[in-house]
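We were asked to recover a plausible sequence for a given structure. The inputs and outputs are reproduced exactly as logged, with field labels preserved.

PROBLEM: sequence recovery
POSITIONS: 215
GIVEN STRUCTURE:
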């Protein structure tokens, strides 16, 4: 916003909901020397300073949406994935099956911070986690000695049959990536021994495919 703090939020549409939902960001992004060099911003921002994102931080709230008897989800924005308080605590308390983290970040590699925090939520409360950034940010993020990457997303779930965290790259010339998900149902029990009759489920990634829009 001209002359004042802006907003950072993700708007997302879901089946059966007329108006897009908005999830606002709860924590500001800080640029330091390392990030300024990695993103090639030295010609625009002084590496001698710390640069904070100029956005308003309103009342903290999270949207949890139930899409089916077995599927609930929430959406996080960038740093909120990494913050244990209050965001991760709220996610663990509700326990959504699917967490989608929309990031303004570099490539979603197994060695970087999003993979670490996705694993935390996959372990507790057992959510399937998708982290997603833009191809532009991937291409812009080039640490010294590295080549540009096209890994725009990372998937992690708690399935006992999972192959672990999976990097998702977009191919040359592709306009997007479609994820093929499978529901994995299992029986869960309360502390006093009652069964849920096997209705608990989790989304599991079984494929990722490039798509190209018709010209």
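RECOVERED SEQUENCE:
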């Amino acid at each position: 916003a001209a002359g004042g703090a802006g907003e950072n939020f993700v708007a997302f549409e879901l089946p059966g909901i007329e108006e897009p939902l908005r999830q606002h960001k709860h924590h500001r992004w800080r640029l330091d020397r390392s990030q300024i060099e990695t993103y090639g911003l030295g010609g625009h921002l002084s590496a001698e300073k710390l640069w904070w994102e100029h956005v308003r931080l309103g009342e903290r709230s999270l949207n949890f949406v139930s899409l089916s008897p077995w599927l609930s989800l929430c959406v996080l924005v960038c740093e909120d994935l990494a913050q244990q308080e209050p965001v991760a605590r709220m996610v663990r308390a509700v326990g959504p099956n699917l967490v989608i983290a929309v990031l303004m970040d570099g490539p979603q590699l197994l060695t970087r911070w999003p993979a670490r925090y996705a694993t935390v939520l996959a372990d507790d409360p057992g959510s399937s986690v998708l982290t997603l950034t833009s191809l532009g940010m991937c291409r812009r993020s080039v640490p010294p000695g590295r080549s540009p990457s096209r890994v725009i997303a990372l998937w992690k779930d708690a399935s006992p049959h999972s192959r672990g965290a999976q990097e998702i790259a977009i191919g040359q010339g592709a306009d997007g990536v479609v994820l093929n998900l499978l529901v994995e149902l299992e029986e869960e029990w309360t502390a006093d021994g009652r069964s849920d009759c096997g209705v608990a489920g989790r989304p599991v990634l079984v494929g990722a495919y490039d798509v190209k829009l018709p010209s």
